[in-house]
Amino acid sequence: MKLIIDTDTKTLTEENDSQQRVLPLYSDEAFQLIAAQWLKVGWNQKYSYTFTWMGRPVIQLPEDMLRIQEVLYRVQPDVIIETGIAHGGSLIYYASLCKAFGKGHVIGIDIEIRRPNRTALESHELASYITLIEGSSTDSAIVEQVKALIKPDESVLVLLDSSHLKQHVLNELNAYCDLVTPGSYLVATDGIMKDLYDVPHGDPSWTWDNPVAAVEAFLPNHPEFVLEPPVPPFNESTLHDPLTYWPSAWLRRKPL
Q1: What is the pLDDT of residues 182-223, one digit of tens each?
Q2: What is the mean pLDDT of residues 111-136?
Q3: How far is Cα 4 from Cα 91, in angstroms, rounded to an integer?
Q4: How buried is residue 165: exposed, middle or buried, by Cβ count under 10 Å (0-12/13-18/19+)?
């Protein structure tokens, strides 16, 4: 595909093989085409590695952070579980929201919590909102450890953000799905991998080895979940398709 942006004529030309179409540059269709390329180039150039939240690197697309905030505010879970900690910025982000909501606790799981990251998290002013668990997120002993931290009447939302390969994500989906309470979400992040197979830092195997493929394998065996991207509570634009690293991520457990 070739995209030609002409700011003089205010058009965007899309060329696919022998086909061509010309769009108004200032149109929803043109925005989506440009945004899709922006997401890919931004991922390759590590755009999401340029932000912090309350002192900790948070490796997330800002648009995704705002969307998950909208969902968390609506659902207001008692427990937020995140697999994959990295520098801990996401844990601090969720903890800050819990403090603002006046409720909630965050459980972070990682196969290795590096000493500088653990030290920074444990000494952070929001440390009391966070529990760190070191070990494989799919290890049955680790899953049982997480379950033991959840009270019977607590609502739970789960975000999967560790390894993004299909089998690992599928294993996580199966391991944590029972913890998600009705009306809440099980979120398989970074499905954008399926679109990154051809960027310089991508991998051809990502066309099939990705979180979206894991979700597609999971859903037929779990009718209690539905693939349901959250609807923005506010939208005065004509745009409806999100800019996200998390396509096909949002699995909502059906209400009872």
Answers
A1: 999 999 999 999 999 999 999 999 999 999 999 999 999 999
A2: 98
A3: 41
A4: middle
The model's pLDDT over 45-55, given as tens digits with 9 standing for 90+, comes to 999 999 999 99
CA dihedral (40, 41, 44, 49) in degrees, to 10, reads -100
Q: Tokens for 221?
A: 């065996």
Distances 169 to 47, 173, 213 between C-alpha atoms, Å: 24, 6, 9
Task: Specify the pTM.
Answer: 0.96
In the block, residue with structure tokens 């909502």: 252
